[in-house]
Amino acid sequence: MSAKILAKSSPLEKLIYGLGDVGANLCWTFMSMYVTMYYTDSVGISAAVAGTIMLVARVFDGISDVLGAMLIEKCHFKMGKIRPWFLIASPLLGISLFASFHVPAAWDSQAKVIYVFVTYTFTAAVSYTIYNLAYSAILTVMALDEHDRSTAATIGRFVTTGGVTVMFYVTPILLAMWGGGQSQSAWSRLSTVYALLCTILVCCMGLFIKEKSYEVENDGKGEENKPAQKGELSKAFKAVLTTKYTWLLLGLFLLFYLYSGVSSIKTYYYKDVLGDLGLFSMGSMLASLPQLFALLLVPALFKMVERGKAVIAGCVIFILSNIAFAMFSRSVAAAYICTVIMSLAWTPLTAVIYVYIADLVDYIYRKKHVRVEAAASMASSIGTKIGAGLGSAAVGWGLALINYDASLEVQTAATQRGIVGLTCILPMILGVLIMVIMLFWKVDQEKEEN
After folding, report:
1. In the structure, what pLDDT confidence band is assigned to residue 338 with cuts at 50, 70 and 90?
2. Tell me, what CATH number does 41's domain have?
């Protein structure tokens, strides 16, 4: 059999891969981190109701992920199989973000709850579903060479982390400048700016990233991504659903993004325990900047330590850091130091989590001889949305459980202790569960055996 020439991604494509994800995070991560505070402190919806809305939205989310994956596998455009979906997702994400932070102030509480449910569900189940399925799948056709794929993923995460760091830093500053976190007009203005940037950056992914095909040396013909026929579509989904690594990947993404959703409790920690939401700007930078530079060292780390072992070691350090955070929760300095250590410990998983999707696609192709880019991405997308949604819901329910009262200038001592518990205990549990999943992830070893 003739050898295959593996196409590589260009430097521009790697950059756009990261910048586009920055745009999407201006919608999704911004909402994950701040929308609960917006609902409780500005709109006036109770934390318990906000948490319930986020959980119920997950039902529609799961359905939309399956339908979206089937649609991507079935459809084929002249531009390619994946790229056009970024052009579709970009305006939808912008509209979703704008609408979510423009809850009509004059409406009564029941109408506000309905509006919040509709806009949040549309964001999660439609706009972000389309984007996330495309983003999860694009790496598999953007870079075919394994080393180039890892490099693209690392550069992408570096750019994304840098963009999110800037967002975390400027958000509290802009909110304060425009009226504060209890001002709906401040949230409206901020979300409008982010919505425009989100639309432009995600659109660039569809315009500038090219899909590659395998080329055989003797004739130069490629294995094109063609629309799946009815039988092929069933075969693709069967291959995905009957592979154990699909379910491990689903669990990994669920836990990774559950932590992302749970992290929104830190806005309450800085505001109500340390007494200054402005401290969150520095805290968020310390959570991102060290990881930003650590990502540059990840390729060298993975040459010395196997990826799975590096992730597991990072989880151990992450768990210990959360224990220290809980012990010294009243100290700003201790909180910042622990935040830096947690960020560094989380770096190996952050760097490779999307590479695992490509690994799953390649694994299924080796074992069952069917390409399943969109169907495999369905697992990561479902995990992402369920995880982030459950994380945000857990924050809402947790706040209700510890009797958080948005009308109080200073929360009770019991409520403050509860906020510290939510900040530390849930992440520790997630770290343990991720370690368990990584112990069963043997794709690399099985590839070597073949």
Report:
1. very high
2. 1.20.1250.20
